[in-house]
Design brief:
Oligomer: single chain
Number of helices: 28
Structural class: alpha+beta
Radius of gyration: 28 Å
Length: 853
């Protein structure tokens, strides 16, 4: 990986030297099918780049990662590939004012989800291809200047196997010679070019809209998936959300969608949730649901569809200069996804999910040693890869929600409209947007940006309340803690118990500044049972409670009638638990008391995840077994009383499968699988069968034959991933040794199967069994990081860290590795530092929980 890196300084120097007029990329993908004698299966890639020299200097380089380069021609002059190509770059000397470069290469198909990924469907043997480039893997498919600020138009031509269809960013068709030729794109960056090819199942529709100026806009829509998933593909709902999204963005952005058609491909073994390639958005195929799922799953898919659509403007039309300003696309898309979901689709409560789910990701990331400002210091491509994180996405989106409260919705949207019109097809930095927002809002955006975008860390807001003899508020202050005391536009709500419900009776918004802010508007109000700072979730902060409010939540959290307020309280209690301020067993008690009354299914699923983590990671080890039994008993109790056939029933069934721990539990799971047990209304479909069998496999109650029999029922790509995960999850030393060797000592598994194997290997119930691999982990990771692609490296370094060996010895071993590897790749050190911090946090939380015994 180090030889494939690109520094910010190199990119800036190259951008100062040249500008690109256009690309012509010719790919021959016929080698994707049939037998292949090569050790690495390759395809031909011929690229013609026309570019101008605009600065001083006569030498530069073009990026390409390929097994072989057959020819390089610069301005008609042949260059010797053996001399100019080093495996990741082609050196160019003697540049003219106007240049034409032609590179003829043999590029490799990928099994890691980077570049041109090749997937063979085990169900029918069909081959499917798609590309994934962000941040810098287009160079695995064609020669280019791989940086976001060297935008250019592209023309793609693709020769594919007979019977295939090929898609790219622009509209295309197959000519008489059998070559797929695509319309030239608008100027875009390398990382959002795209090719999808294969025998995909393809459905079409059309979006029509009359714009404010009277223009009729018509956008051809397409959606595709593997043939094996066609029977599950609910394309009508995908198109519904797509059309609702286009309506929302056209209403608010006043800039018509600029990239022609709009295809959406759901592809196998995808590393990301989705990617915003203009005109050809790609998604992980797990968003096609093979069985019954909850509305939270459909809401999540809608959010992703709208997130990617927002990128057509934030990121594709206007692009950051370098990855430092990644937030200019990802934060805005994350915010706009929830915004559009709440206002344009059936998922009107999506801000509840945002508060409870997305922000949890941000809070965790912002407390790691690797936390960084939203506008980050991205030195190179490895830094960029790791900064697709909770800070850039969820914290950035949260801060934008705060900005809307601070500047006003109208000023924010008007700023966006001016931004698109002023910088269309160009590249921008932070200051370009701030200048416009200052004009539209009248606010000091530089001061706001300094506090919110250019510093790291999360603030804590805590109410401090005093009362008079009659129980009325004499003073309510908000105390702010944190390294950077930021300005918050926040609401404070007062709640009281009435008729068995906890309802809000007073609310005010205030500008919270400095260490202590008195909220004068609430003076004189009657004593509340709950004071909720950041009511309505306007700002980004962790909230704490005064003693009386915390006591109210322990006894009445489920009585809060407002779903957003309830979600905020769940999140706050979880943060107290993670921070070692609330015993894990207390969080479990609150969850078991009130989770069964949670009406928002997404919040319930998040509470389930937190509760399992509380027992697995944060409870004192001596209480884990007891805590696990409480979870299983609570799950079974709620499963039996849930409405038959409801999504709550399905969610509790999955929770029971994830927490089952004794013979009675396992007998019930076995009965549900073989039909001898039945719970009224519960449909045990194929995906639920795999969930039930997972628990049995991890506890030694399903052997290889039993798992193989389930694969025979579900002999699909998805079934294969489940099978691989379950095989690795069995409690056997030989199984663990085999799984370790497949992931660490071999590179034959695809990215999806690496993930599945790691997920099976790391079972919380098997701490002792996998303990010997802690030492092996530290011995292997630097070598593995150097040898594998960065995506596989991330999977392995994160997934196999011995965090389940939660003791001081593992912490000491981690510190020893860090001390001995100060010169290791910064991205690798960051991953280990983050894992170390999670482990140290768990040990602190366990100490807190132990005191509650």
């Amino acid at each position: 990986m180090p030889g494939e890196n690109l520094s910010r300084d190199e990119a800036h120097e190259r951008a100062d030297l040249l500008s690109v007029d256009g690309y012509e990329v010719v790919l021959d993908l016929r080698s994707a099918v049939g037998d292949c004698a090569e050790a690495v299966r390759t395809f031909r890639s011929e690229t013609t780049i026309r570019f101008r020299r605009t600065g001083e200097g006569t030498s530069t380089f073009v990026d390409l990662i390929a097994p072989a380069v057959d020819a390089v021609t610069l301005n008609g002059r042949s260059l010797d590939p053996a001399v100019v190509f080093d495996g990741s770059r082609i050196a160019l000397d003697g540049l003219a004012d106007e240049n034409t470069l032609v590179v003829d290469a043999r590029c490799a198909y990928s099994r890691t989800g980077e570049g041109m990924h090749r997937f063979v469907d085990p169900e029918d043997g069909e081959v499917y291809l798609y590309t994934q480039y962000e941040p810098a893997d287009a160079r695995r498919v064609y020669a280019n200047f791989e940086q976001p600020d060297l935008k250019a138009p592209y023309r793609f031509s693709v020769t594919a196997p007979e019977g295939w269809t090929v898609w790219s960013n622009g509209a295309g068709e197959r000519d008489a010679e059998g070559v797929w030729r695509f319309a030239e794109t608008a100027p875009i960056s390398t990382y959002i070019t795209c090719v999808v090819a294969g025998p995909y199942h393809y459905v079409t529709d059309t979006y029509k809209r009359t714009l404010a100026d009277g223009t009729d806009l018509e956008i051809p829509l397409g959606a595709m998936c593997r043939k094996g998933l066609a029977r599950h593909f609910d394309a009508a709902d995908v198109f519904l959300i797509t059309k609702q999204g286009f309506d929302f963005f056209h209403d608010n952005f006043d800039y018509p969608y600029p990239f022609g058609k709009y295809d959406q491909a759901f592809v196998p073994e995808y590393n990301l949730g989705a990617m915003e390639n203009p005109g050809m958005v790609t998604f992980r195929e797990e968003y096609i649901y093979r069985g019954k799922v909850t509305q939270a799953a459909y809401e999540s898919r809608a959010n992703v569809i709208l997130h990617e659509m927002a990128h057509m403007w934030f990121g594709d039309l206007v692009t950051m200069v370098w990855w430092d300003d990644l937030w200019l696309k990802e934060s805005f898309a994350d915010f706009m996804g929830s915004f559009a979901n709440a206002e344009a689709t059936r998922f009107t409560n999506s801000w509840v999910t945002f508060a409870n789910n997305r922000k949890a990701w941000a809070y965790r990331a912002d407390q790691l040693p690797s936390t960084h400002p939203i506008t980050a210091d991205i030195r190179d491509l490895e830094d960029a890869k790791l900064n697709f994180d909770g800070i850039t996405y969820a914290k950035g989106a949260s801060v934008l929600k705060q900005l809307v409260a601070y500047a006003g919705r109208d000023a924010f949207m008007e700023g966006a409209r001016r931004y698109f019109k002023r910088h269309a097809y160009g590249n921008t930095r932070l200051g370009d947007l701030l200048t416009i927002l200052e004009d539209t809002s009248g606010r000091d955006m530089k001061a706001w940006a300094k506090s919110w975008l250019q510093t790291s860390g999360v603030n804590t807001l805590t109410p401090a309340v005093t009362y008079d003899a009659e129980g009325r508020i004499t003073e309510l202050a908000v105390v702010q803690e944190g390294a950077e005391l930021r300005p918050h536009r926040a609401a404070v709500g007062l709640y009281r118990l009435s008729g068995g419900e906890l309802v809000r009776y007073a609310r005010t918004e205030a500008d919270i500044t400095g260490a202590r802010t008195v909220v004068t508007e609430l003076a004189g109000e009657e004593r509340p049972d709950l004071v909720l700072v950041n009511d309505d979730d306007l700002t980004y902060c962790k909230i704490r409670f005064d003693e009386g409010s915390l006591a109210t939540l322990r006894a009445h959290l489920g009585d809060i009638t407002d779903p957003l307020a309830r979600a905020l309280c769940w999140s706050a209690l979880w943060n107290l638990t993670r921070d070692g301020l609330m015993p894990a067993r207390d969080f479990v008690a609150v969850a078991l008391a009130f989770a069964g009354r949670e009406t928002d299914i997404g919040v319930l699923q998040m509470v389930h995840a937190w509760t399992k983590s509380a027992v697995t990671l944060y409870a004192a080890p001596e209480w884990r077994e007891r805590g696990g039994r409480l979870l299983a008993e609570g799950g079974l109790r709620e499963l039996r009383v849930a409405e038959p056939g409801s999504e709550h029933q399905l969610t509790w069934a999955r929770f029971l499968a994830a927490t089952a721990s004794d013979d009675a539990d396992f007998q019930l799971l076995e009965g549900l699988l073989d039909g001898t047990a039945r719970i009224d209304g519960l449909d045990v479909d194929q995906e639920l069968r795999w969930a039930l069998l997972s628990a049995l496999a991890a506890h030694g109650r399903a052997d290889e034959d039993r798992i193989g029999a389930e694969l025979a029922r579900d002999d699909t790509a998805t079934g294969k991933r489940h099978q691989v995960r379950l095989l690795a999850s069995r409690p056997s030393a030989a199984v663990k040794a085999q799984a370790w060797a497949q992931v660490v000592e071999s590179d034959t598994l695809s990215n999806a199967l690496v993930e599945a194997t790691i997920a099976g290997f790391t079972q919380p119930s098997q701490r002792e069994l996998i303990a010997p691999y802690a030492e092996k982990y530290f011995a292997a990771i630097e070598r593995l990081w150097a040898a594998r692609s960065i995506q596989i490296g991330i999977h392995v370094v994160r997934g196999l860290f011995p965090g389940l060996q939660d003791d001081e010895a593992t912490l000491t071993a981690t510190d020893a590795w860090l001390a001995a590897h100060e010169s290791a790749a910064p991205a690798l050190r960051r991953l280990v530092l983050e894992a170390r911090d999670d482990l140290a946090r768990a040990l602190r939380a366990q100490a807190c929980d132990r005191l509650a015994a």
